[in-house]
């Protein structure tokens, strides 16, 4: 392990704006680099004891609405001696100009160089952002490899769902945080503050050691990986005595104590979501076997109906947004979702504020919910996710929804005024056959027939959207083999033909899909180990940028890079993707504890192969997944018995804040 030098930090440039501004007329959408949004915070540099640069590694239009980054930005900036600013991935046109003119990666708040900050926090919701991370590190003037960094460089911390297996980027990040960030960033900040106040003893290595000792910050440099002759991992062990063998996830238990964002960022440029978003609960126990988010965010923690109401009122008043998104992994499962939606609909009756839910469970949507979501006449899009086309494959993935459930739910939507619904499915699921996929066409046809019959109108549509299945760490499918891209593409061609076989129905059905190639690469990155870092670097050196965007993604670039670097390790692309793992194999993330018992995950994988469905443990006895006992907690659900009121009703003239209640 190399020891970084104690190079002092160079003088801080107050702002790189004078050098950046002349470049902006030469690029597309220059407004995304300007900053100054409503909700943005600029604090004095010299007054801050700890300084964070926060990044969502994608373009501004995707990164700005990201809920996780917005929450951490606000939590950190509420501390009087802490400063947090935001940075996003720059498009290739600006990257080229920045390199030509020596302009570093910058924050959009005060346009400071990212290298000048103490901590560079990067939130990954998808692994396809890894190449953008390397671009940002390099543009910032920070050494790509963590081992080459000095005290002059910020500590780079990865977070987000993809950080539950940070091994593919272990060479490039200094640390990773598993789980919820609200309390984690405060703990990291306190450690950095104390270390700096003491005069930075022991340099960068000592700071990282202090972080590792928390047992909830993973520092890859303190762990060695040994491999077996066939390429599998033999073991992952600490290389020093004072770091833990396993690193545990952080879980924020009381969401009511963290009512963020209070002051949401309002974008200057168009973004993918322009709404005030409230996370109404965190975690999910539905047990969909493909769903990493549902597994790693356990246990369920509900935000109370009164806190949701207060957040919506304050957030809308501050931002001026006209849409409220009630977010979670399965929002209609909140124990008080009916009262919540009716209360908000009453609150904003007669205004232009609309409510929306993200992808809604087929068996949780009902006529009352439909009426509340459409009460003011505005109907935002409805998305339902059966995930699998056939009853059999839905048993495999534990998506307990019947075709009759779906038809009944969609007819409810059509008869309540919606004319367009979206149905989301996956292709390439374990044990899937052509016949399973072709049943998607039958289901879509029946949806249109039933909708026409119920409404007496042909003016209805549904869109079938298909995503490629990617096995994820910490799920029962973490052992599964992926399907090859050519098989996925073959099934999608058959499905398109089947949808259009009946032209009168087919013309009412939209068909959107992702081909199998990006999914295979995402699979390489999601279940990769440290050796995959060399592939990421080669792809980036060969021009890889914005791999989550189809127009920028190059499958051949990834295939070529894998073929160039992986044989030296005795493995290849198929070894990471289309190979099924066995029970005893050491997985790259086994030393990172999501709270889930590995034996339970394996048994659920066997249950999937035997097409056995598992109930939701919120309403049935515990299934021993391991989360609650390992965290000394239990599922937190309502109902609280409270209503949204006594918030003051809002009229068309605007929002009114109720007078404080006398104490």
UniProtKB/TrEMBL annotation:
Question: Which source organism?
Answer: Micromonospora haikouensis
Provide any one GO MF term from the record. catalytic activity
Q: Which PROSITE patterns match?
A: RADICAL_SAM
Concerning Gene3D superfamilies, the annotation shows:
Cobalamin-binding domain, tm_1862 like domain
Show the PANTHER family listed in the entry.
RADICAL SAM DOMAIN PROTEIN (PTHR42731:SF1), SLL1084 PROTEIN (PTHR42731)
Q: What is this protein called?
A: Fe-S oxidoreductase
Q: Where is the Radical SAM core domain?
A: 270-512
């Amino acid at each position: 392990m190399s020891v970084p030098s104690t190079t002092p930090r160079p003088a801080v440039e107050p702002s790189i704006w004078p050098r950046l501004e002349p470049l902006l007329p030469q690029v597309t959408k220059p407004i995304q680099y300007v900053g100054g949004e409503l909700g943005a915070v600029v604090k004095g540099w010299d007054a801050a004891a700890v300084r964070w640069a926060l990044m969502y590694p994608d373009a501004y239009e995707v990164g700005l609405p990201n809920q996780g980054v917005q929450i951490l930005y606000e939590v950190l900036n509420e501390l009087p001696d802490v400063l947090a600013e935001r940075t996003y991935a720059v498009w290739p046109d600006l990257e080229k100009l920045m390199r030509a003119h020596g302009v570093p990666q910058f924050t959009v708040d005060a346009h400071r160089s990212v290298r000048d900050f103490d901590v560079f926090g990067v939130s990954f919701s998808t692994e396809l952002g890894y190449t953008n991370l390397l671009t940002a590190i390099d543009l910032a003037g920070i050494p790509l490899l963590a081992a080459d960094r000095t005290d002059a460089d910020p500590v780079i911390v990865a977070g987000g769902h993809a950080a539950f297996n940070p091994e593919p980027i272990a060479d490039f990040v200094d640390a990773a945080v598993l789980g919820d960030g609200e309390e984690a960033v405060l703990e990291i900040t306190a450690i950095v503050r104390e270390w700096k106040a003491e005069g930075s003893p022991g340099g960068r290595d000592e700071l990282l050691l202090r972080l590792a000792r928390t047992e909830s910050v993973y520092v890859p440099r303190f762990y060695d990986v040994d491999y077996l002759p066939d390429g599998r991992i033999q073991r992952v062990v600490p290389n020093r005595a004072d770091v833990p063998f396993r690193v545990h996830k952080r879980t924020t238990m009381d969401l009511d104590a963290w009512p963020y964002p209070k002051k949401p960022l309002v974008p200057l440029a168009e973004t993918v979501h322009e709404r005030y978003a409230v996370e109404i609960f965190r975690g999910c126990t539905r047990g969909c076997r493909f769903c990493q988010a549902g597994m790693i965010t356990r246990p369920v923690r509900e935000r109370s109906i009164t806190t949701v109401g207060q957040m919506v009122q304050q957030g809308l008043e501050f931002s001026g947004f006209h849409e409220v998104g009630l977010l979670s992994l399965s929002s209609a499962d909140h124990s008080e979702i009916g009262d919540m939606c009716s209360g908000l609909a009453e609150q904003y009756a007669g205004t232009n504020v609309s409510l929306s839910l993200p992808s809604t469970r087929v068996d949780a949507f009902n006529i009352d919910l439909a009426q509340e979501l459409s009460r003011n006449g505005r109907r935002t899009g409805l998305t339902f996710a059966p995930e699998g086309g056939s009853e059999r494959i839905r048993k495999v993935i534990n998506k307990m929804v019947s075709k009759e459930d779906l038809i009944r739910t969609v007819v409810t939507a059509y008869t309540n005024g919606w004319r367009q619904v979206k149905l989301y499915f996956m292709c390439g699921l374990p044990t899937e056959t052509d016949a399973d996929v072709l049943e998607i066409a039958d289901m879509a046809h029946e949806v249109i027939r039933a909708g026409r019959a119920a409404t007496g109108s042909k003016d209805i549509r549904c869109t079938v959207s298909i995503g490629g299945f990617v096995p994820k760490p910490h799920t029962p499918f973490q052992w599964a083999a992926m399907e090859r891209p050519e098989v996925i593409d073959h099934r999608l061609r058959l499905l398109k033909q089947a949808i259009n076989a009946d032209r009168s129905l087919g013309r009412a059905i939209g068909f959107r899909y992702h081909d199998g190639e990006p999914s295979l690469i995402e699979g390489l990155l999601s279940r990769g180990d440290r050796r995959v870092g060399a592939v990421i670097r080669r792809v980036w050196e060969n021009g890889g940028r914005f791999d989550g965007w189809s127009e920028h993604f190059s499958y051949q670039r990834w295939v070529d890079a894998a073929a160039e670097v992986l044989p030296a390790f005795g493995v290849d692309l198929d070894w990471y993707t289309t190979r099924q793992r066995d029970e005893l194999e050491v997985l790259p993330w086994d030393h990172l504890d999501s709270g889930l018992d590995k034996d339970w995950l394996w048994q659920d994988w066997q249950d999937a192969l035997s097409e056995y469905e598992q109930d939701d443990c919120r309403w049935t006895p515990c299934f021993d997944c391991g989360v609650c006992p390992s965290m000394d907690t239990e599922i937190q659900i309502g109902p609280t018995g409270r209503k949204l009121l006594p918030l003051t009703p809002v009229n068309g003239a605007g929002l009114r804040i109720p007078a404080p209640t006398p104490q």
